Amino acid sequence: MRVRACLAAVVVLLATLVTPAHAELYHPRQDWLRASTAGLFLHWGMFTAPRHTDCAAWEHDVTAGGWTPDYWIDEATKLGASYVVLTTFHSRLGYARPWPSKIPGSCSTQRDFLGELIAAGKAKGVRVMLYMTDDPQWHNETGHESLDSAAYSAYKGHPVDLTTRPGFGEYSYDLFDEVMDRYSDLAGFWIDNDNEYWEQHGLYEHIREKRPSWLLSNNNEDTPIMDTVSNEQKTGMTPSYDYPQAIYTPMPRLTEADYKLPTNGDWWYSGGDQAVDFRLSTGRYITNAGSSIKSLMAETAMLNGKFPPQQEAFNNFMASWTQPIKKTLAGTEGGGYMYGGMQPGFWNDGAHGVITVKGATQYVHVVTRPSTNLVRLRDNGYRVTGVSDVRTGKPMRFAQSGGYLSILDITDWDTYDTVFQVDTAGQQYFYDKSTIKATASASAPGHPASNLTDGSYLNYWDAGGQQPVSVTLDLGRKRSTAYLAVHERESSPTAARESFGRAEDSARIKDYRVYASDDGKNWGAPVRTGALPSTRGVQFVDVGEVHARYLKLEVLNTWSGPQAKPFFHQLAIDEIDVAYGYPDPRGEVPLEAESWRNGFEGKASPVWCEACSGTAAVAGLDRGAVVFRNVQAAGPSRLQLDTAGPGRLSVSVNGAAPITVEAPAAIAAPLTAGANTIKVSGTAALDRIAVAPLPPESYTPKTTLTVQPAGVQWVSPGQQSIKVTASLRLDVDDPIGQASLAPVVPAGWTLQGAPVTAANLRLGQVLSGSWTVTAPAAQDVTIPVTANFTTLGRAKSVSKPVQVKPRPDGRVFMREAEDSANDIGDAGVTSCSACSGGQKVRNIGGSAGAAVTFPDVTVGAAGQYTLYLDFTVNGDRSYFVSVNGGTPVEVKVSGAGNSTPYTTSVPVTLTAGANTVRIGNDRAGAPDLDRISLG
Known about the structure:
- By secondary structure, the chain is mainly β.
- The chain contains eleven helices and 55 strands.
- A hairpin with a 5-residue loop joins β10 and β11.
- The longest helix has 18 residues, at 165-182.
- The chain is globular, with a radius of gyration of 30 Å.
- The relative contact order is 0.07.
């Protein structure tokens, strides 16, 4: 669908990590979309299979096939969609206009398909938006010219080349005007990126003046004048359906997730009956609603407008499946954010889900069920008064204590989304923010720390790129504190990823310390140290029972790596709430340590612990033990040990030799089918245990392995040495043990440096090392850098390769554009199967920051060399090449498609030793770059 990545999105938005200034966050024209859950995205045009190149013939066949607008409206209704985006004027669908236009330039129908669709939608309460493309580059795809510059030039009375961006911008500007004049009931425009002509001639302001009630949506860009930011086809999340993990736009900005329902194939119908992944699609639908994101679902209408059978089947399923839970989606907001609600995300025993809220009522959507029969999540201070199963109406047994809600004895699991209605009496035991004053060690201009306690999510604190950085909270007088609720700004994805070739990463808190002080000067030792997970929604820092006037939250670092420059060292927080207690306890969670059902040996005895499950823990385990009897299991299990603090525990199962672990922890316990006895002793106070089935053998905790150098290393003949560095980071709160990290060299190579090791790694901790590998001669090899570790007693490993290849004859230097030694600025790396090394750098040009700089381009002697550029391009574009800061030299290239590598060359003058080569285009988009070499 999207065929051109726009650099402005990164320069304007990601560099600041904020919603663009002056955006209209709230306006009455947006009300209908805010109340929506979903929309239907229809890519349907002249190139829909079977492909047509004659406009009249296409229109004839559409009508003869029985096209009717009511079919699309009815299918949208089945999906719970309150709007349809008609995508016919698309660069890959022949630039067809589904209305009788008076403006020549591309296919225009005599039948008013657009008008009929708008009327049908109005009759059934479904709005229609019109897609408009900014891009003429596919005007001659497969040899058919879709744009008629001569006809449009005659109409305008001056020459206009529609195949250029300015000419196409002028043409499409006129089409916007024509549509506004013809269709007063259209809901607005869905725009696929910006065109320079539109911006220079005030198109968006013109639309606002002419049709002030219409919505404007932009794809993958956060343009201030637009109402909506749409985010296209995000993948690579864990779990795969959790689309919001990849979204970078904070609430309350209106946000869409646009994605394909067919698992494979194009955005439009190109033949066949593609499957729909029900699990993926329903999960996206629910998790998007849980983040106040609208699901814009793309289906591939055939020539006659009908959907292929498997898409129709999914629509029919959705019509019945969503009906019982409709109230939990329509008119709700995402919970755990600015609208209140409990904490979404990863819960106990593999569970994952989201919260939706409507007034005092919350809905817990369990999208991935736990391996047990209970769901346990942070309550965010809400006192729960009742829980029921939304689909069955059955009241549920629940318990609440220590900041957690546990929904118990669940038996009726839905395949895709088990939903519980949670009624509350509001939040308890938070201090009035007007009594708290916040200051910080650093702040960006306009975003002071005082925003942290102003109660508004439209204002926020920005650390100004400083790390470590601290926030101090003055409570006004000495008070008790139980925990902090930290609302980080949702202005970054949750994990390292690439989006249209640009590196993104999480700008969320990783390692932190909390201090307390009576005078704001003498802080002493931290009262709490730890790491927060990189997840969306409110996060909690439990500090125990602290009595002080001042609290200081020191952020040591964030999750983002340096590869994602717009996110690296960035931190923004909307609000911080200070709680002096947890909601009043109610009920009992299974296997609490202090339960009367357990036995207490020696000095072991229950003690008060407000933050613990059941408000108690068992202490004295260094001189005694707690014995859990009649612990039911199906066999060997995952045994979780929750404690009131760090320490060491010994666990004996059914009288066997004890297993010693650093707590809190989870271990593989040799339980037998039926009743078991578990005895626990040690130096930590035990809160509770939890028993769950072991995860599948395939389960590996999520880690990030970073290896440098990245990219193929082209080496000269003879013996060569390469320095390799690597780091392994644990990204989840699931400790690993016996970790080691090292390269594995081929036979005949030597490795200088021993493996680095760690007895265990916890959330956010990193294991790093560096080595030198030496080859006897230049070889074509792959050197895996491998991390080995254990989880629940199982051996696991992750690996990344360093590729080494001999440099071709006739080349004195060669380096990939994506090599980690280079600075790619605001450009990005993307896959390219035909390219050297399988990758290339894209999004070069358009600004000074979007260039590739090659440092240490080393030659043995000064003189003139030939610089070879391997690239891909669609159309005519230019590079500008600068050596050692000299005057840039233009290199013009052309090509067809963006998947075929070409080579061009330019003479350059180099000095002996290291040189710096910069390749970019400050004024316009440049070709994608595969690699450079010197001859």
